[in-house]
Amino acid sequence: MTNKYDSDAHVPEVKKKDFRRSYESELDNEFSSRVNHYNYKNFFISGVLLSILIWGSSFLITAITNLRTTEILHHEYEQLLKANSPPLLQSRPAVAWDGSGKIPLNFSAVRDGKFRPNYKSLQWIHEPSSIESDKGTYVLKDDSNGHLEYTIKSIVDDDYSFTLYNGSTFNYSDTEYKIESLIASPDLTKAILKTNATHNWRHSSFALYWLLDISESSITPILDTTSKLAVTSWSPKSTDIAFIFDNNVYVKNIASGEVKQVTFDGSSQVFNGKPDWVYEEEVFAGDIVLWWSPSGDKFTFLKSNDTEVPEFTIPYYVQNGHEDYPEVVQIKYPKAGYPNPSVELVIYDLDTEKDQLLELKSEKIVSSDRLITEVVWVGSSVLVKTSNRASDLLEIFLVDSVQNESKIVRSLTADDSWFEVTSNTLFVPKNESLGRLEDGYVDTVVSGGFNHLAYFSPPSASEGVLLTNGQWEVVGGVEAFDFNKNKVYFVSTMKSSVERHIHSVSLFDKSNNGLPKVENITSGEGWFAGSFSSGSRYLLLTYEGPEVPYQKLIDLSSLKDVKTIESNQEVIDNLDDYLIPEVKYEVIELQDEETGEIFKANAIETLPLHFDSRHKYPVLFFVYGGPGSQLVTKNFAVSFSSVVAAELNAIVVTVDGRGTGYNNYNDDLGSQYKFIVRDKLGKYEPLDQIAAARLWSEKSYVDSDRIAIWGWSYGGFLTLKTLETDVKHKVFSYGVSIAPVTKWKLYDSIYTERYMRTPQENPAGYEIASIHNITNFEHVKKFFIGHGSGDDNVHVQNTLKLIDEFNLGNIENFDFMIFPDSDHSIRYHNGNKVVYDRILTFLRRAFNGEFA
C-alpha cells in the first residue's frame, strides 16, 4: 500500500511501495521509513530516492523512520527526562549532566535537519556511443552559492564540460517561470524543462513543459503556455517527444515542431499512456505507461478503460476557493472484489502513423480480470507480463511488433504464495563476438521461493539459465548490464538480510558449481545503493548506513575510487555535538503459540540516553509488517524512534515478524516466512508482535505495565489488530494507529487481492483480517487513532466505520483526531508536525501513567 505523496516495498526494495520523495512519493515525508531509500537506476538519480522494499506494493511506511524535515516547522521540545529517574517526566538540562558537554537529542534538532544526510542529484546521459565507449557523461545540477546551473560533465575527461542551462528561472512572453526539473535529450542538444507543477496522486502531476534548444539558448512550450501536460518522454534518438494531455497521447517532432495526436478517446474514463489511480499506485509506481522501442521508430502504451470501476468521493473542506462548500473529487478506485480497469496495449508506428492493439490471448485469464504488470521491448518484439487478480498465475507474452503475432512463452503458477510486481527486466541484444548468439533478456524469477536472476535467450525460450541462486534475495532485479563484458549488476541480501550489497555476475561464467560466480562490488557492513553510467563502466555508489552516509564515484573496470561526491561532514559534526540513543541489532527467537514452532526474526532495540539496566523503562513497539516489507535495516537514521528514546526515556523495539520479507534464518520455513500470510492477513503478524512484547516484558530493565505499540498505514492496521488479538496476555497497554486499514474489503483491489484473493472467494479470511472483535479493546488502557480526511489511498472511511462500531460497542478508551484534507502522509496545513506532536504527547502521557 502506498500513498499519494509517499515510496517503499513497492521499492524494490518498495521499489514499488516504498513511499518516497517529496510530493512524488511517500518516503519524502518528514519521517521517512527505513525501507530502501533509493530507486537508483541507469537513467538518473533524482534527489534522495528512498526504496520498502516492499515488494509488490507495500503500504505507506510513511515518513516514520528518518526524520527528514524539509518543510516541518520548528518544535519547542520539552525538557528531557532525567537519566536517574526514568519513570518520571522531569526536566533535564540542555547539556548532558554527565560532563560530556553534549546536548541530549531532541525533536527540534531532528526537525531542523541536523542529522539529515545530503545526497547529490546526478543524471547519467545515454549517448548513442555510451555502450561501446562509456565516457561517464552526466548532468550535474549545482545550486551552490544560491545559483543554479545544469552542466554536462565527464568522468573520463575533466576538461569535458558545457552548460545546459544557467539559472533557475526563464522569461517567456514577459512571464517568469521557475524550473522544477530538467531532462536532457540523449544527444545533448535539447532538454525538457518542467514548470508550474500541480501535484495529483503519489507519483503523478500536471505541469507546463518546455523545449530548451541548447545551442540557440531558446525556450518554447512543448504544447502551449496554458495546457498542463501529465508527462513527457524523449525518444531514444532525440528526434521526438511523446507526451500525455487530457489522457491522450501526442508526439512532437523536434525538427519540424509538428504535433500529432495519436489517440482521441482519452477522458475521465479512458486513460492513454498515463496510469489510472490503481495502476499508478499498485503496479507501475510512476506517472507514465509508454515505452519507446530501442530504435525509436515505435512506442507502445497502456490503454485503461475505467468505465466499470466504481468511483470513490473525497470532499476537501479547507482548500482555497472552497471555503463555504467543500470541493468534491471523484476517484476511479476499485476496492477488493469490484471491477478493475480493463487494460490493453497499443503500439504506434511513427513512420506509418498507425496504431494497433496488441493481441494477448489467454485461455486461463479472462481479459476483464487480467492485470498487465510489466512491458519491455526486446529488440523488435514486446515482452508483456500479465497475471490474474489473485496474482498466483503469471503469463508472459512475446509479441512481434511487425506482424502483431503473440505467444505465451512462460506460464507460471504460485502455490500458497503470489507473484510480486517486477519492473527491471533487461533486454540483452545479440553480439556473436561476445558469445551472445541471439537476442535475450535477464529477468527476475523465483527459485526456491526467493527472487533470483535468469538469462533467457532467445526471447522465446521457456526456460532460463539461472545466474543466481540460494536462500537469499536479489532485490529490485537487474541494476545494470555491461554490454562489453557480459556483466550483470544487482543488489542482494546474500551477506545479510538487514544489509544491501552490490554484486556482479557474468552471463556465461559457470565456475561456481554450475552457476556463474558472483563478485562483490561492495564489502564490509552496510546498506549500499548505486546508479550506473550508460555503459556500466562507472558507478555512483551511495552508502546509506549504518554510519553517516556518503557518495563516491567508482571506476568498475578497476574498482578504484574516482572521487568523493558527498561526505556529509556537517552531519558528522552535528553528531559530535549531541547524545544519540544507541541502536542494537539482534536476531531473536519467537514461538508460535498454536504449533510451538520456534523461529528467528530480525529486531532493532533503540535504548534511552544513559541506559541503565538497573532501571525499568517503558517500551514502544514500532511496526509496519506488510507482506514482503522490512523495517529492520542497517540504514543511518536519527529517527522518530530515536526521539522517543531520548525525550521519553523509553526503549523502542521493531521486530520484522512473519509476513515481512528477506528473512533467511529459518531453513524449515524458507520463503514461507513471507508467504505464510497468504489469504489470512492479520493472523500471524499480531501474534509475532505479542510474542516479541512478551519476550521484552520479561527483561529486568522493562516495566511490563508500560508497553505500547504504534504504526502507520499497514502499521496502523497491525497496531489495532495486535491490540484486538492481545486479550489473553494483555501485554500491550497502549497503542497509536495512524491512517489504518480496518477492513480489507475497503482497500484497493490490486494490492489486497494479491494477498487475500477477492472477498467473494475468501469471505472467512476477510472477516479475520478486519478489525471486528470490538469488545477485545476493553483491556487497553488507552489508544489513539489519527487519519487524514483527504486520504486517497487508505480512505478515512476505514477509521470512521471502526469508530461507529466502537460507539455501538461502548468502547470509549481511545482518542481520535481528523486531519482536514490531508492525504495518507498527513502533510496538509502543518498536519505532519501536528500528528507527530500528538503521537509524542500521547506516549508521554501514557508512560507517565496518566491513563492508568
UniProtKB/TrEMBL annotation:
GO terms for cellular component: fungal-type vacuole membrane; plasma membrane. The keyword Transmembrane helix applies. GO terms for molecular function: aminopeptidase activity; dipeptidyl-peptidase activity; serine-type endopeptidase activity. It is a single-pass type II membrane protein. Residues 639-849 form the Peptidase S9 prolyl oligopeptidase catalytic domain. The chain crosses the membrane at residues 43-64. Residues 185-550 form the Dipeptidylpeptidase IV N-terminal domain. It is found in: Vacuole membrane. InterPro entries: AB_hydrolase_fold, Pept_S9_AS, Peptidase_S9_cat, Peptidase_S9B_N, Serine_Prot_S9B/DPPIV. Keywords: Aminopeptidase, Glycoprotein, Hydrolase, Membrane, Protease, Serine protease, Signal-anchor, Transmembrane, Transmembrane helix, Vacuole. Its EC number is 3.4.14.11. Pfam families: DPPIV_N, Peptidase_S9. GO terms for biological process: proteolysis. Belongs to the peptidase S9B family. This is Dipeptidyl aminopeptidase B. The gene is DAP2.
